[in-house]
TrEMBL record:
Taxonomy, superkingdom: Eukaryota
Name used for this protein in its record: AB hydrolase-1 domain-containing protein
SUPFAM superfamilies found in the cross-reference section: alpha/beta-Hydrolases (SSF53474)
Organism from which the protein derives: Acer negundo (Box elder)
GO CC terms of this entry: chloroplast
Single GO biological process annotation from the record: chlorophyll metabolic process
GO molecular function, one term: chlorophyllase activity
Residue stretches making up the AB hydrolase-1 domain: 84-337
Length: 361
C-alpha cells in the first residue's frame, strides 16, 4: 500500500519575512533568484517581478490573452524528459509557484499558466467560468504551445482541472498527473456527501443569492480582497505560518483589483461545481499519478469524501502514489516546498521516457 506520511523537520528561521516597500522596489530592480532564508523550506525563491518580466502571452481561441511562463535550463533537460505544466488554485496565479519553478527547471522544462479569470490573464466580461472551460484551456495550451508530452501539476481547483483535462486528452499528450490537495469541484457545493458541507449548504445557497446582487457582491469582494482579510485567510489555509508573508498577500491581492475580477469571483463561487474527481479518475487509471496531501487542510480535509477517495486509490491501482504531508495545509507547494520536492523529483525521475514530440501549430 503506497500511502506514506511525510513529517516536517523543525522550522528554523523566519522564512522570507515581511517585506518593506523599499525592499520590494529593490527586488524589482534586481531581477534575480532570491535564496529562501528558511532551511526547512529550502531551495530558491523566484522573484515575483522577474516572473512578470519573463512571462509571455498566448491568444486562446483568438480572443483571450492568457499569461504564461516558460523556464528551463536547456543543458540539463534530457530531450526525452517530460515537460511540466503548473496550474494554480483558486485566487492564485503563476507567482504562487515561485518556490518551485527554479528547483524544477534545473532538470525539466517548466511551464506555468494563469487560468482565464486569474493572475495576468484576461478576465472577460460575461465569460462563463466552469471547470470544463479551464480543462479545455489546458488542453489547447498543451497542443498549441507546449507540443510535447507533459506532466500536469495542479493545486486545489487546478488539480481538478488537470484531472478533467487528462480524462479528455489523448494518451500521448498527458504523461502524468501530480495532484496537490485536489478539490472536489469549482466550489464547495460539489461535496454534498460531506456532513460539514451539508450543515453549511443553506448558508452557501444564501451566499449565492447575495452574490447575485451586484451591490452586495461588490461589498463582499471589497472585504475579501483587503490585505488584512487575505492575510487571515492565508494563515488559516497554511500549516507553516512562516510561508505567509507580504509577498504572498501581494500575489493574491493584486489581480483582485483588475477589471473583471469581481465578475470572475461571483461566477466561480455561484457557478456549477463541475465534474467530480471520483467519477473521472477511473478513466485515467493507466496514467502515473502522484497525490500529495497536506494533513492540515481545512478546505479539502483528508478525512473528507475527496481525501478519503484518493487515500483509497493506491491499494487498488499501482499507478497511484499517495504521500500525506504532516503539518501542511491546502497549498503544499508553497507551504512546505521542501517536502513536495522531496517526493516529486524522484517520482518524475522514474517516469517512462516520452515518445517523440509533435510540433505545435
Amino acid at each position: 500500500m503506497s500511502v506514506w506520511t511525510v513529517r516536517a523537520s523543525p522550522l528554523v528561521g523566519n522564512g522570507i519575512g515581511p517585506v518593506s516597500n523599499q525592499n520590494l522596489q529593490q527586488r524589482k530592480r534586481s531581477l534575480k533568484l532570491v535564496p529562501c532564508c528558511t532551511t526547512s523550506t529550502g531551495g530558491d525563491v523566484l522573484d515575483v517581478e522577474e516572473i512578470r518580466e519573463r512571462s509571455k502571452k498566448w491568444q486562446w481561441k483568438g480572443r483571450y490573452s492568457i499569461n504564461y511562463l516558460l523556464s528551463s535550463s536547456n543543458s540539463s533537460s534530457p530531450s526525452n524528459s517530460p515537460q511540466l505544466l503548473l496550474v494554480h488554485g483558486f485566487g492564485a496565479s503563476i507567482p504562487h509557484w515561485r518556490r518551485n519553478i527554479s528547483t524544477l527547471s534545473k532538470q525539466y522544462t517548466v511551464y506555468a499558466i494563469d487560468l482565464v479569470g486569474f493572475g495576468a490573464s484576461d478576465k472577460p466580461a460575461g465569460f462563463s467560468y466552469t471547470m470544463e472551460a479551464w480543462a479545455e484551456l489546458i488542453l489547447d495550451f498543451l497542443d498549441e504551445v507546449v507540443g510535447k508530452p507533459t506532466v500536469l501539476i495542479g493545486n486545489s481547483v487546478g488539480s481538478l482541472a488537470c484531472v478533467i483535462a487528462a480524462s479528455e486528452s489523448s494518451k500521448t499528450l498527458v504523461q502524468g498527473l501530480v495532484l496537490l490537495n485536489c478539490s472536489g469541484g469549482m466550489n464547495n457545493k460539489a461535496i454534498v456527501d460531506d456532513w460539514r458541507i451539508k450543515l453549511l449548504l443553506p448558508l452557501l445557497w444564501f451566499i449565492d443569492f447575495l452574490l447575485k446582487q451586484r451591490v452586495i457582491a461588490s461589498a463582499i469582494f471589497d472585504l475579501v480582497r483587503q490585505r488584512d482579510t487575505l492575510n487571515n485567510i492565508l494563515l488559516s489555509v497554511y500549516g507553516n505560518k512562516e510561508s505567509v508573508d507580504e509577498v504572498l498577500v501581494q500575489i493574491i491581492s493584486e489581480p483582485a483589483n483588475d477589471e473583471g475580477a469581481l465578475d470572475a469571483f461571483v461566477s466561480i463561487i455561484t457557478g456549477p461545481p463541475g465534474p467530480n474527481p471520483v467519477q473521472l479518475m477511473p478513466r485515467i487509471s493507466y496514467l502515473p499519478v502522484l497525490v500529495l496531501w497536506g494533513d492540515q487542510d481545512t478546505f479539502t480535509p483528508l478525512d473528507g469524501p475527496v481525501g478519503k477517495y484518493f487515500s483509497s486509490l493506491p491499494p487498488q491501482n499501482s499507478n497511484v502514489k499517495l504521500f500525506v504531508l504532516e503539518g501542511v495545509g491546502h497549498c503544499p507547494h508553497d507551504d512546505r516546498p521542501d517536502l513536495v520536492h522531496q517526493k516529486l523529483l524522484p517520482w518524475l525521475a522514474h517516469l517512462p521516457a516520452t515518445a517523440a514530440p509533435h510540433t505545435p501549430f
